[in-house]
Amino acid sequence: MHSNIINFDTIDSTNTYALEHFENLEDKTVITALSQTKGRGRFNRVWVSENRENIYLSIVLKPTKKDFLPNITQYMSVCCAGVIETYNVKAQIKYPNDVLVDNKKICGILCESYLKNNIIQGVVLGIGVNLNMPQSVLNTIDRPAVSLNIITGENINRQEFFNKLVNEFFNNYDDVIQNGFASFKEDYILRNNFLGKNVYIQQRDNDIKENFFAQKMDDNGNLVVIGNDGKEKTIFSGDIIL
Ligand code: BTN
Question: Which of 8, 12, 15 to mutate to test the pocket of ligand 1 (most atoms within 8 A of CB)?
Fold first, then answer.
């Protein structure tokens, strides 16, 4: 089992804590909490974090070779999907790194860089997974969301899921740092729910959604699409809306 774990009962946000203490935390430290009072999502969204039987964790990563750090969120989505599948539940990945079950979001990933004098020192990779959310709480979330217990019909053991996820992540982490997207491209593509489809892409929350055909993933983990003008375009950031 991974040795470097810091457990909190309640904290504002495991990502915030990891960023605030980044310089004093060792590489590969895992910060976890039973609940968060200010859980954060991408695009400044709130991540609902009161339930004490979910996953809220952040990993401090300071590899020497940093070229492939941008792919680490996609790698985490593959790890999370793989762990969900051990519960006999089919998980899908929506570009770039949302994990969905039955087309509803079950897991969110937020990766934040730590800079010093404008130079990247590493990242904090945060992940939240809905394991035991009551339907009443899911209904308060402004986007379709689901929890693993609702799919399986059984309570999910938080510690067991946590151990599986952390082990899965560190199993191939070094390979990802060395070889990037190529080391898990197949596993990512296998689970995607967007390739070969017409999708909308939204760069930021309030931006106009543009329609594209999602053609393929390139070797760097970027989505290649074809626009209405027939031209190929690589999407570096943005969310897919199916
Ligand atoms: C998203 O899909 O918008 C990303 C959600 C990320 C949530 C996790 S929970 C643990 C860590 N701490 C946070 O405040 N956010 C991440």
Answer: 15
Whole-model pTM? 0.96
Question: Which residue, of 157, 172, 191, is where some domain finishes?
Answer: 191
How many angstroms does the Cα of residue 100 sit away from the middle of ligand 1? 15
Give the pLDDT confidence of 121-140 residue by residue, as tens digits. 999 999 999 999 999 999 99
Residue 95 CA, distance from chain mean position: 10
Alpha-carbon distances, residue 133 vs 25, 146, 189, 223 (angstroms): 31, 8, 28, 32
Task: Give the Cβ contact number of residue 17 at 10 Å.
Answer: 20
Domain boundary among 171, 191, 211: 191
Q: Do residues 220 and 111 share a domain?
A: no
